């Protein structure tokens, strides 16, 4: 199966606005994939649907062979989501945020502690494990969101504008970390409106414009006709 297979996906919001107009897309296992598009193109809507935060209007979504309608919990377990906005309780200690998230996915406390330590070390947050999230810098909060998204060992990591508003040094170290994750076999899909980020990281891309996919190609092919 594919890491992700989307067929004829449409989304019309409650106010009648159609944000996705029957899009189809597939992403191979192991790929590093960019969903590129201007603000308002429909990127967040698409990944919201894939990660079960937004209901679709019609179409099909399959994640690692699991259908989002009929096998939702299996499909959800395959995915780690790094949303654009911080959405954790900032008055909770960093390590607790990870342990609670692990619990939410049924990972036992002692196993969760092992995983949390590993992730916090890799993401250079181990020294901050006892701090409340409110005490972290913007770049640290973003790394914490990545750690949280990985605690249940998903096969597919989805990041919404992962480095928006992050300074260049942190951005580079996040890029390095994501490259290593991908080399370790995790499929990565990120949204960005920042071509350099896609160019730096991604093998394949789709360009979304006003709810339609207007290009779906390799990064190499895209760059050769720019
Ligand atoms: P992107 O992530 O590419 O910036 P979004 O998926 O956030 O795009 O938004 C796509 C379009 O859908 C935009 O025009 C946005 O205003 C609209 N939209 C997003 N969320 C809602 C909502 N809850 N209700 C109505 N319209 C929405
Ligand atoms: P429920 O399935 O019980 O409705 P929610 O979707 O409300 O759960 O999610 C509960 C919390 O877990 C929220 O903070 C949400 O952002 C987070 N969450 C849900 N799914 C994921 C995921 N795949 N990766 C990371 N965080 C997630």
Automatic annotation (TrEMBL):
The keyword Nucleotide-binding applies. GO terms for molecular function: ATP binding; ATP hydrolysis activity. Residues 4-226 form the ABC transporter domain. It comes from the Bacteria. Keywords: ATP-binding, Nucleotide-binding, Transport. This is ABC transporter. The chain holds residues 2 to 227 of 314 of the full protein.
């Amino acid at each position: 199966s594919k890491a992700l297979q989307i067929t004829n996906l449409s989304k019309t919001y409650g106010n009648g606005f159609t944000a996705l107009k029957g899009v189809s897309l597939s992403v191979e296992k192991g790929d590093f994939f960019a969903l590129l598009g201007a603000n308002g193109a429909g990127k967040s809507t698409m990944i919201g649907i894939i990660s079960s935060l937004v209901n679709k209007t019609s179409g099909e979504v399959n994640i690692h062979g699991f259908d989002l309608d009929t096998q939702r919990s299996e499909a959800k377990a395959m995915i780690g989501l790094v949303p654009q906005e911080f959405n954790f309780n900032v008055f909770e200690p960093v390590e607790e945020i990870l342990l609670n998230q692990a619990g939410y996915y049924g990972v036992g406390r002692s196993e969760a502690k092992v995983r949390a330590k590993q992730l916090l070390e890799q993401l250079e947050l181990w020294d901050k494990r006892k701090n409340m999230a409110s005490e972290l810098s913007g770049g640290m909060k973003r790394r914490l969101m990545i750690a949280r998204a990985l605690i249940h060992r998903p096969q597919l990591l989805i990041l919404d504008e992962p480095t928006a508003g992050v300074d260049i040094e942190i951005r580079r170290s996040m890029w390095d970390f994501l490259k290593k994750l991908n080399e370790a076999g995790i499929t990565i899909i990120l949204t960005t409106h920042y071509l350099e980020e896609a160019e730096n990281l991604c093998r394949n891309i789709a360009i979304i414009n006003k709810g339609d996919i207007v290009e779906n190609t390799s990064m190499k092919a895209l760059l050769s006709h720019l």
